[in-house]
Design a protein that fits this description.
317 residues; alpha/beta; eight-stranded mixed β-sheet
């Protein structure tokens, strides 16, 4: 297990607990009471730390190297029913964007999401979860296919942003994302979006327009990352913590502003502490959202989606 800077008190107590248990196993000394005291203090420390997380600490948790990624969710929820589909039929297959058909609780879905890598080699292969235009065009191709056959769509969002390279701009990055937003607004099947990690900028919006947008508890969703915001406003990354607070990018902030529909709770310590529970919870929320949408007519579905996004940003003086 890797620990973030604010989790170091937890690491110290867990190390103490491990040493205590080893002493008990390797000697005749009864350390039961000592271990119980450490376990109690460990539980109290965890609850104290994770109950009072700052916005920046939640950003750090969303980037935790042990956090489950899109394919982890897909494989756990869909099992061997997932059939990955490839290519945008125009340029090439983007490995940062994955998609295909899979079943959740017996219902077929078209599942699309950004995928990050686990180590240096796979991070390069997946381009750090930053999709090129062909990734968004692949996503749109799969969504239109789902619409043709009446299959609902689920998207998993986890990206630091769309790839900002010169070649991506030359191939129409902005147009590809804008096209996806337009087509998703009027897609004639239910769309459920789940933010499972980072939800940054247009890279997230390119697959983020849905009838139900769900945010996992320790994720963030914003037009810009705290580091980039800090570098623009203060000409330095040192103010990223203040930027994270000012951006109101946490799940609680997003729900309060009615920009997402629901928050998916995570196990104490984050999704990576108990993956099995995390996957079950995500599956339950997807099924619940689909059951709320499945009986709506196509007209009502599209109109309610348009109405939902039209109301965002409204205010009264």
């Amino acid at each position: 297990m890797e620990y973030l800077d604010f989790e170091l008190p937890i690491k110290e107590l867990e190390d103490q607990l491990d040493k205590c248990q080893i002493i008990g196993q390797e000697s005749d000394v009864d350390v039961t009471n000592t271990c119980k005291q450490i376990e109690k203090k460990l539980d109290e420390t965890k609850r104290k730390i994770y109950k009072n997380l700052t916005a920046w600490q939640r950003v750090q948790l969303s980037r935790h190297p042990n956090r489950p990624y899109t394919m982890d969710h897909i494989n756990a929820i869909c099992g061997d029913t997932f059939l990955e589909l490839f290519g945008d039929r125009g340029f090439k297959d983007d490995k940062a964007m994955v998609g295909g058909l899979g079943k959740i609780d017996g219902q077929s879905f078209m599942i699309i999401g950004q995928q990050k890598g686990y180590n240096t080699k796979t991070r390069q292969y997946r381009n750090f979860g930053m999709a090129n235009p062909e990734g968004y065009r692949k996503a749109l191709r799969l969504m239109k296919m789902a619409e043709k056959f009446g299959i609902p769509v689920v998207t998993f969002i986890d990206t630091p942003g769309a790839y900002p390279g010169l070649e991506a701009e030359e191939r129409g990055q902005g147009e590809a994302i804008a096209r996806n937003i337009l087509e998703m607004v009027r897609l004639k099947v239910p769309i459920i979006c789940v933010i499972v990690g980072e939800g940054a900028s247009g890279g997230a919006l390119g697959i983020g327009v849905g009838d139900r947008v769900l945010m996992m508890e320790n994720t963030w969703y914003s037009v810009i990352s705290p580091e980039s915001c800090s570098s623009i406003l203060w000409k330095s990354w040192e103010y990223k913590e203040q930027a994270a607070e000012a951006l109101k990018l946490t799940s609680a902030d997003m729900k309060k502003q009615k920009l997402v529909d629901d928050i998916i709770p995570e196990p104490l310590g984050g999704a990576h502490y108990d993956r099995e529970t995390t996957f079950k919870t995500v599956q339950q929320y997807i099924t619940k959202a689909f059951n709320e949408l499945k009986d709506l007519s196509t007209t009502d579905l599209v109109m309610s989606r348009m109405d939902k996004y039209s109301k965002m940003g409204e205010y009264k003086e």
